[in-house]
């Protein structure tokens, strides 16, 4: 069974630019795990680059949400192609853009991007989990834990280690908008709850901790179920 990883775009391309050392280590971690028998589906987000494009376009000529969403989706496809090429012959030969596509391959790594307006790549990850009958999604973010409120705005924000979908959805709300930033988006959360999925929010840049999560060992992060 494939392990589903929703990889935040800012993990791959931070605001400060590419971290080549990190990317090499991330690539090695995934490849090492495939040598142990793991198979992965990586859904790559747009990240800060996506939001910069959306903000610039809207500033130059005001656009509706569908147009801005499509621009974001194109940015995920570009990021996903970068990741696919990064894994070379070890990855499936094309970026998947339809999470319901039936894929027959012996490759242990499949790379995906965004699908359609009204959702982020988190929702694509949930649909892929449904398609591949996975019960858990690892959401790789730039934060160690989810919080009960924005820690950048509120000093009294509390980290969350375990939370139900009902309570988590109260935090993220029900409304999606282009460039929306949350540990797991509202559209994805609603579907994940319906499918009874477990989502683990893990800091993607902490590779030793991520390795523990992938191996089923004790790790730092937020579990939503």
UniProtKB/TrEMBL annotation:
Pathway: Pyrimidine metabolism; CTP biosynthesis via de novo pathway; UDP from UMP (UMPK route): step 1/1. It is an enzyme of class 2 (transferase). Keywords: ATP-binding, Cytoplasm, Kinase, Nucleotide-binding, Pyrimidine biosynthesis, Transferase. It holds the Pfam family AA_kinase. Residues 2-202 form the Aspartate/glutamate/uridylate kinase domain. GO terms for molecular function: ATP binding; UMP kinase activity. GO terms for biological process: UDP biosynthetic process. Its EC number is 2.7.4.22. InterPro entries: AceGlu_kinase-like_sf, Asp/Glu/Uridylate_kinase, Uridylate_kinase_arch/spir. Belongs to the UMP kinase family. PANTHER family: URIDYLATE KINASE, URIDYLATE KINASE PUMPKIN, CHLOROPLASTIC. This is UMP kinase. The lineage of its organism: Bacteria, Candidatus Magasanikiibacteriota.
